[in-house]
Amino acid sequence: MFVKFAELPVFDQDRAIAFYGRHLGCTVARDAPYAKDGWRWVELKLPGARTQLLLTRRGDDEPSDRPVLVLIEEDVKGLFDRLGTEKVKIITAPKEASWEPGSTFAEFRDSEGNRIVVSSS
């Protein structure tokens, strides 16, 4: 069993597609008309993952201060070194997770202001 979608609230679908494609290597798995106002059903495929990101409409103008997504990446430091050079807003630089000794975690904000956590396990 696996989760097919993880919802990712966004303001601008095209901007989010570009951000996740450029910075995390996501590809568009589906992009189809969904609502009369031009909103689309957009699914992004994460490299090597079965779960896809479903870009949903954000309900308000304020991004959550709590993480909306946790990604697992073996080389957290390497990813954040690259994100930093690409001017992505880093919230927490890579460091050891106090709740899981030996595991590294870090946080960044995506193009929509979402707080994203990356962990090595």
Provide a brief overview of the structure.
This protein has helices spanning 13-24, 76-85; strands spanning 5-10, 27-33, 40-45, 52-57, 67-72, 90-96, 104-109, 115-119.
Could you please describe the fold and organization of this structure?
With about 120 residues, the protein is an alpha/beta fold. The protein has a single domain, classed as 2,3-Dihydroxybiphenyl 1,2-Dioxygenase, domain 1, CATH 3.10.180. Helices cover about 20% and strands about 40% of the residues. It contains two helices and eight strands. It has a four-stranded mixed sheet with strand order 1-4-3-2, covered by helices on one side. The chain has a four-stranded mixed sheet with strand order 5-8-7-6. The longest helix is centred in the first third of the chain and has 12 residues. The chain is globular, with a radius of gyration of 15 Å.
